[in-house]
Amino acid sequence: MNQKVNRRRSNSITIRFDNDEKREWLKYCDSLSEPQFGSYADVILHLIRSNTTVQIDLKSLRDNTIALNKIGANLNQIAKACNSGKQLDAGSYVCFKEALNVLKINKDNLNKIWQSLKR
User: Fold this and answer.
1) What does each C-alpha distance from 15 to 1, 4, 41 come to in angstroms?
2) Are 60 and 112 in contact (CB under 8 A)?
3) At what angle do helices 19-31 and 40-49 cross, to 10 degrees?
4) Closest C-alpha to 1, from 46, 41, 38, 31
5) What 3-state DSSP class applies to 68?
6) CA 66 – CA 79 distance, rounded (Å)
7) At CB < 8 A and 24+ separation, what contacts does 4-9 make?
8) Are 78 and 92 in contact (CB under 8 A)?
9) Among 42, 67, 88, 108, which lies 20 to 30 A Cα-Cα from 78?
10) Where are the alpha helices (DSSP H) in 19-89?
């Protein structure tokens, strides 16, 4: 990537990296063995033009969102009752425990989706 840079480009974009991001970017650029990449701009344009897509299971994401909204409504009702001085009855306690379990499952599912996006 130490070849002469094409100076016919008149526009510039500044990208700020922290040290780890810069090291990762340089490692990525160095790993490219394509001769057409004479500059970092060429690499960026290649990434844009290659139109890399990531497949996401949107149904799973929608289901998670719906479940989280329902859990949020239940938790808000429980919190409102507790804040008004009422004691948590057995049914509300069971609902609260179930909500926590569903939150853990949704967290795991969202982490899987996030990991697939990072690839």
Assistant:
1) 18, 20, 11
2) no
3) 80
4) 38
5) helix
6) 20
7) 4/38, 5/38, 5/39, 5/41, 6/38, 6/39, 6/41, 6/42, 9/41
8) yes
9) 108
10) 19-31, 40-49, 58-83
pLDDT in tens, the chain (119 residues): 545 555 677 888 888 889 988 888 888 887 876 666 777 788 888 778 887 665 666 787 788 788 888 888 878 887 788 788 877 778 777 877 787 787 787 777 777 777 776 66
What single-letter DSSP state applies at residue 83?
Answer: H
Can you tell me which residue has the tokens 């008149």?
A: 10
Q: How many CB atoms lie within 10 A of CB 99?
A: 19
Q: C-alpha distances in angstroms, 113 versus 40, 47, 55, 57, 67?
A: 30, 22, 10, 8, 16
Q: What is the pLDDT of residue 92?
A: 74
Confidence (pTM): 0.38
70: tokens are 């329902």
Token pair for 107:
């967290």
